[in-house]
Amino acid sequence: MPDRFPAILVSKDGDEAQKVEQVELGLDDLMDGDVVVDVSHSTVNYKDGLAITGKAPVVRRWPMVPGIDFAGTVASSADPDFKPGDAVILNGWGVGEVHYGGYAGKARVKGGWLIHKPDGLTGAQAMTIGTAGYTAMLCVMALERQGVTPDQGPIIVTGAAGGVGSVAIAILARLGYEVLASTGRPEEADYLKGLGAADIVAREDLSGKPRPLNKERFAGGVDAVGSTTLANVLSMTRYGGAVAACGLAGGMDLPSSVMPFILRGVSLLGVDSVMAPRARRIEAYDRLVRDLDHDKLAAMTTTIDLAGVPQAGADIVAGKVRGRVLVEVGG
Fold first, then answer.
1. Which one of 3.30.565.10, 3.90.1720.10, 3.90.180.10, 1.10.287.380 gives the CATH number of domain 4-117+300-328?
2. What three-state secondary structure class fits 136?
3. I need a labelling partner for 172 at 20 to 30 A (CA). Which of 2, 135, 160, 257 fits?
């Protein structure tokens, strides 16, 4: 194994100003764990953008290698579940926040954080999906568990042109749902309809002051925005419907009331991708193999190398990124 490998490192100087730079690290620089992975691919998720730009306190240990997910091949392992040569995926578990993450040629992590890459996905496809796409699948699974079916009416997807939204639209459309895509970027209408959206809902329709109850429009929803947008979606959800919430791009608050829950029986389903149990992760990736059109996945993806990560991180926080950003880390 090469002694040195490239990495993106974020650090703070004496004035607490954040610095992002590409460096070289060695195995001795990595953090504790029982599995070493040769990282082939990572991705740029919204959370990665927050870590890179410092727009939110995602990084809680300094210095840090960002990257909340990666795919690669096991180089060495003291965990009996993994052996050298195994293709693996990691999402979450504090990687890229408190433990060195995916923006490095190698990672040393706990075996319990890994899953085996399913047959039917390459490492590049696994990270084209990435945490955003895996989270989208968890949202769809949550709606299904709640009994939301395609015959009940349209599903609203907010933040539709982003990573979670793009993959959610593609999955839901393939499963037969009527999908409405909410976006503040009307120029992306053709892109969203190409993914399977039946129609576009302007962001402004969901950004006004929420009423306790509004006209029933949606059988369910996938929300990556939070705040006023989520409050409006809840107020417009039909009797017995459900909304899977997984993000806060619009804010952490929720200016809603109990009215949708107690008068319409609406369910708000919290979706966490960071600490989800292994069995649910495996199910999500198995579903992604068969329930996601991988031609559409490729069409929503831009590929960069490690040197492009800082700019991509800034762009995704600024709302300039459409779909997914794949990072080619190693061979």
1. 3.90.180.10
2. helix
3. 257
